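Example 65.
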Amino acid sequence: MIHVNQSLPCPTCNGNIQIDVKQLLEGTAFHCPNCMSVIRISTEAKDIIKNIKLPEGPGRSGGKK
Ligand SMILES: [Zn+2]
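Predicted structure in complex with zinc ion:
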């Protein structure tokens, strides 16, 4: 399964920022404990993620063309 608790390298001080991937994807901002830099996913990336559709089971899409 996917581990949602991960750490990212801080872009400012290169320290570890503990993040929850799920919250990050929901737009939650996370602070670096060392330098208080805020990281959050960009709106652009959020749109990209929103457009990702997980494959559904076979025969579920229905409607042939
Ligand atoms: Zn930092």
